[in-house]
Amino acid sequence: MLICVTGGTCFVGAHSVAALVRSGARVRLLVRDPSGVDQALRPLGVAPASLEVVVGDVTDRIAVAKAVDGVDAVLHAASVYSFDSRRRAEMRRTNVRGTQLVLGSAVRAGVDPIVYVSTVGAMYPAAGSVIRADSPLGMPREAYLASKSVAEAVARLHQEEGAPVVIAYPPALLGPHDPHMGDQSARLRNALRGLFPIWPGGGFPMGDVRDTAELLAALLAKPAGERERHFGPNRYVTTRQYVEALRQATGRALPAKFLPARSILPFGMLTDLLQRIWPWHIPAEYGAVYTCAHATPVDASASTYGIAPRPISDTMADSVRWLYESGHVSARQAGLASRVLEEPST
Predict the structure, then answer these.
(1) Closest to 304 in 3D by CA, of 226, 208, 165
(2) Is the separation of the CB atoms in 245 and 316 below 8 Å?
(3) pLDDT for the residue numbered 279
(4) Separation CA 140–CA 178 (nearest Å)
């Protein structure tokens, strides 16, 4: 089975490629920079020589058509995931236009299944007390979440027209081996560095990237059913629980003060505006506060394809250990995690 993967050198995509290769599938990557394939995938046990590589961008119609030509399935995981307001135009271009091109090209090529990686945040603010597969798309007032909501509307339209499109909803993800230090990994690193003495209240669905990769590999192994939508294995975690899990993983006190998320949204909006002109990244992101203020638990009966989420404590410990082993934090900042010699669980 030959599977085309976009975003295969990023966090979710790289772990998904590793899961697909372990299952015996052949993988074709659409990548902008082939030099990043080795860095992203070799730590996960994938030899770049075992992969097909098409060089191009998801917004390049010719490159996308070449990438999906002759494949059995497509995993569209490419997106710009960032709460950095300076990347608004890039998010609209990649997340929306890229989704239009990849899904449209795959449908025209007769591919089945076509798995689109959305996010639970595409349904924020939620209409009910929990999020379900049939929940309506939200109208989030945050650039990244808004772009993913518009992109998912494209995927849902294909489903309504009968195309074999499957939508997957990862939660906020942590885990080892993040090739480009995405927002969640960077936020964890910054917390270990003491840059977050004040936290918004609320919480968010959280999971392990390895569990979501397992879900995506399973979805790609069979033809799509009618309007399939599945959630990455997750647990709703409050910010207090997040910090406590980090304390347990490191053995550090990590002092933190928690304020109601909605009360500090105005401050987040100010930092969002400032970030547009400030040349260096500001750790206090409006998008993170907005998410904590509006995130809703996923319905316990929602489909995760039978994959149980691993304990948050394991995910947190493995993430901190990887940050230390990769040189992103010091031994003092990693605490107990720097002294655990066992290999991270897989």
Answers:
(1) 208
(2) yes
(3) 83
(4) 26
d(CA 302, CA 231): 7
Integer Cα distance of 130 and 301 in angstroms? 10
Q: How many CB atoms lie within 10 A of CB 268?
A: 22
Cα–Cα distance, 320 to 342 (Å, whole number): 13
Distance CA 269, CA 259 (A): 16
Q: Which pLDDT does position 340 carry in this prediction?
A: 66
Domain boundaries of the chain, sorted by first residue: 2-177+206-235
Q: How far apart (Å, rounded) are the C-alpha atoms in residues 155 and 139?
A: 16
Q: How confident is the model at residue 281 (pLDDT cuts 50, 70, 90)?
A: confident
pLDDT at position 98, please? 98
Q: Rounded distance, CA 50 to CA 47, Å?
A: 6
Q: Which two tokens stand for residue 66?
A: 């070449």
In this prediction the pTM is 0.94
Residue 204 · residue 292 · CB < 8 Å: yes
Reference 31, options 66, 58, 2, 12; nearest CA is: 58
Tell me, what DSSP letter sits at residue 131? B
d(CA 49, CA 10): 18
Cβ atoms of 165 and 172 closer than 8 Å: no
Dihedral pair phi/psi, residue 168, rounded to 5°: -115, 140
Say which CATH topology domain 2-177+206-235 has.
Rossmann fold (3.40.50)
Burial of 267 (0-12, 13-18, 19+ CB in 10 A): middle
* In the predicted structure, residue 283 carries a pLDDT above the cut 90: no
Which pLDDT belongs to residue 274?
86
